Every structure is written in C-alpha cells, then in structure tokens.
Description:
mainly alpha; two-stranded antiparallel ribbon
Amino acid sequence: MIEVGWDQLQLWVSAFFWPFCRLLAFFMSDPILGHKNVSSQVKVGLAMLLAFLLTPNLPPMPDIALFSWAGLGVIVEQVLIGVTLGMVMRITLAVVEMAGEICGMQMGLAFASFFSADTSTNSQVLSRFLSLVTILMFLALDGHLMVLELLSSTFVRLPVGQVSFDPRAWNAVARHGSTIFLTGLLLALPMVGALLIINLAMGILNRVAPQLTVFSVGFPATLSVGLLLLMVLVGDLGQFLAGLLYRTLEFMEVLIEHMGRR
Length: 262
C-alpha cells in the first residue's frame, strides 16, 4: 500500500501551483492571449493546462513549505515575472493604439469613439481598427506560439525560488515604455505630415477667401485624404507590425537575461 505523507503531498502541489501562478499572472496581464473578451474561466483553465503539461519537465522546485512566509514570497516572485512579461506585450499593443489616436484626431474622427472593454475607456474607431489588425497579425505570425515557448523557457532560465531581480530589468521595462511615443509617432508620421499640410493650406485659403468656410470644405477634405492615406498605409502595415512584434520578442529575451542575473 502506497502511503503519501503531508510533506510529499505539499511538494506535489507546490510543483504545480508555483508555475501556475506565473502563467496565470501572464495571461491576466497580456492584452492578446489574455484579452478581456476572453472569460476568466478560460484563462485559469489554460494556465492550469499549461502548468500541468510543463510540471514534469521543470527543474526541481525549492524545498520551501507552500503555506509559509517563504512560500508567499515565491508566489509574489512568480506573479512579478508573469506580470512584467505581460506588460511588455501591452506596451507593444499600446504603440499601435496611440498611432491610431493620433491619426484619428488629425482626420477629424476624434468624435467617432466608443467604449472599449480592453482599456475600460473610450477609444477612437481608427485606434480600435489598428489594434484588431495588430492582434490578427500577431496570430498570423504564430506570435502566440512564440510567446508561449518563451514563457515556458523562463522556468529554466528563471528557476522558481532562485530569481535575484536585477534593478536594470525594471529600468529596461521603464525605458521600453518610450516606444509607445517613438514608434507610435513613427507609424502615424506620414498621415500626420500630409494632413498637417492640408490643414495649413485650408487656413491660408480661409484667409484669402473668407467665404470658403473650413467646416464645409476642410473637414471632408481631411477625412477623404486621411482615408486615402490609410489605404496606402495598410499596404505596408504588415511589414511594420511584423518588425514590431519581433523586436518585442527580442526585448523579452533581453529582459529575462537581466532578471536572471545574480
């Protein structure tokens, strides 16, 4: 008869529970795999499934009691790792959303907004459109599989209970947030430049011919030119998004190396 003691049972549970905490924290913070339209039950079920599949192949877990202060520290450690990696993906999606906000304001679509469940705020229709295109591109490039592979490798490169966080890792995440403005403005720059020239021209025409009202002519002109430029932009959008997603994965690799340094 096989007897299972409390210590052995606690060891089995901790070998599953700690990886589950890291996976669940990532799915809750990731804007694509953990989209708000996906129910919490599905996220928990997916995290449990992946933890169950990964547990037999993971390095030995630390000899720490699950129900102890040290065990609570390990749980916090796993949550921080998962949330940090998910935040990097959220920054990537925010780049495209900001570009859509800038282009929409220049086109005169600032009033065309609706409630977005992703951010719990009102978002412009153009920003929502570019966000959906980015998610579809991410799935088409098998980005979700790459991210899951990278996430599973963190259990070897960042063993449970043996992570010594380097302050440079948090500094790198903070600096990576600047890509929201740099890359977002770079994506929106062609449309912003063209629409700015049109607005300047309409201002000059309004001064020359006051009867030519800006609202009756300028708004249809900027909207029509903006839609035309958007059609041209979509043609090269795939290459831009692919480069953005690959740079995000490369940054996640560097971030994991910083987090694992002792």
